[in-house]
Amino acid sequence: MRLKYLSILILVFIIVGAPTANAQSSTDKKTEKPLSKRDKRQLLKAKKLEAKIEEVIMLIEARNFVIKDDGATGGLYPQSGLVNFFRIKNDTVTFQRQGAKPLGTGVQEAEVIDKFQGIIQSLNVIEAEGDLPPRVVVSYLDRITREFRRTVIYIFPSRVEARREDGTGLVIRGKYYTIENARVRELGINSERLLVETAQRY
Predict the structure, then answer these.
(1) How confident is the model at residue 9 (pLDDT cuts 50, 70, 90)?
(2) Is 139 helix (H, G, I), strand (E, B) or coil?
(3) Model's pTM, two decimal places?
(4) Burial (CB count <10 Å: 0-12, 13-18, 19+), residue 112
(5) How far, in Å, are 31, 56, 174, 178 from residue 134 at the CA level?
(6) In terms of Cα–Cα distance, which of 177, 195, 197 is closest to 95?
(7) Does an H or E element contain 71, and which?
(8) What are 163-175's pLDDT values in tens digits?
(9) Strand partners, 155
């Protein structure tokens, strides 16, 4: 008898409660405002940036990463891309920049090539905080001086930057690539002369 009574109560609850639930669902849908075009653009940009951050970190961790300089900073290093680059390949990090060195009054200029290489010790991913974008800290031992060095890779929405944190002020900024797609021209391959000359300047 109790079971029959309980069944009747459940049936009544379902019949009476169903319209209420549907009405609540309908009200919720009405209160949800569609995204504006501006909000949609911002959401799309956020998704693209998130995908870019993930791809950059993936390539760095795979040790298959190149930044080709876009030449936007100009100055004494106007050349871009082909010879001005930052690369992580296997356990080696390479920072190469070709430009000009002022002589005397600065009217005459002599070509100079900065090239650093190191053996990677660690990669540390840091999330965005404050005004700083997401970044990856690459710690390595300099091939020539054997000193401990760091380069920080900043992931901006429009570009990627590699900055040496040693007071030299050397920066490579631009688009990122895999090693195969970058097709950069490394100077002084299998030679330590450029590395030694650069180390002597700094």
Answers:
(1) very low
(2) strand
(3) 0.76
(4) middle
(5) 36, 10, 16, 20
(6) 195
(7) none
(8) 999 878 789 999 9
(9) 160
The Cα 104–Cα 76 span in angstroms is 15
16-41 pLDDT per residue, tens: 454 554 545 555 555 677 888 788 88
Separation CA 163–CA 124 (nearest Å): 15
Q: What is the residue whose two structure tokens read 């970044």?
A: 135
CA nearest neighbour of 97 among 165, 158, 188: 188
Closest CA to 165 of 133, 139, 195: 139
Task: Give, in order, the Cα–Cα distances in Å from 120 to each of 26, 162, 171.
Answer: 58, 15, 18
Helix (H) or strand (E) run with residue 163 in it: strand 160-164
- Residue 174: closest CA among 164, 182, 185: 182
List the structure tokens of 24.
């609540």
Cβ(162)–Cβ(152) below 8 Å: yes
